[in-house]
Design brief:
Elements lengths: L8 E8 L8 H20 L3 H19 L4 E7 L2 E4 L2 E4 L3 E8 L5 E7 L6 E5 L5 H8 L12 H9 L2
Antiparallel strand pairs: 1-2, 2-3, 3-4, 5-6, 6-7
């Protein structure tokens, strides 16, 4: 029988899912025009399915841009990291990096061994990044994580 130690919270904070930039009417129009133009181009090239996808994707992006980000409960424990209802054990996390964005926001980036969600980004708006670093460095290595295409695209779209 396995003897598991209970989880002890070492550090905890509450944050939003992402930094919400208000999307104005110009942003909505731009996304709609790009979606419609892509759909028209697809139909002209006889690719009806991609045209439908472009319209649905633009609509979903507009709806997502209007939604307020969810509030997340973050807890670093002696066994891993809890992000609301999802638990990442330390042996499933390859490394971490604390990145400062252009707007001054601090982001904790976790690189996991997972195939689908390889990187997790956690905002640290109300938390001292140095205290997070001091706790995490005891359990997982700190490695520089360069911004990838998803990061750049989400920044450009305002998410």
């Amino acid at each position: 029988m396995e003897n598991k130690k209970p989880q002890t919270a070492l550090l905890a904070w509450i944050t939003k899912e992402h930094i919400h930039g208000k999307k104005d009417k110009d942003w909505i129009w731009a996304v709609a025009i790009i979606g419609i133009a892509t759909a028209i181009g697809s139909v002209l090239l006889s690719n009806w399915l991609f045209g439908l996808f472009a319209i649905l994707a633009a609509g979903a992006l507009i709806l997502r841009g209007q939604r307020e980000p969810a509030v997340l409960d973050i807890a670093v424990t002696n066994q891993g990291i809890n992000i609301s209802s999802e638990f990442f054990p330390f042996d499933a996390i390859e490394s971490f990096w604390i990145r400062e964005e252009k707007n001054g926001a601090k982001i904790l980036v976790l690189r996991t061994y997972a195939k689908i969600m390889h990187l997790a980004r956690i905002s640290m708006e109300n938390t001292d990044p140095e205290s997070v670093r001091e706790v995490l460095i005891k359990f997982i290595p700190e490695t520089y994580h360069q911004k990838n295409l998803v990061d750049v695209t989400s920044d450009w779209l305002g998410f």
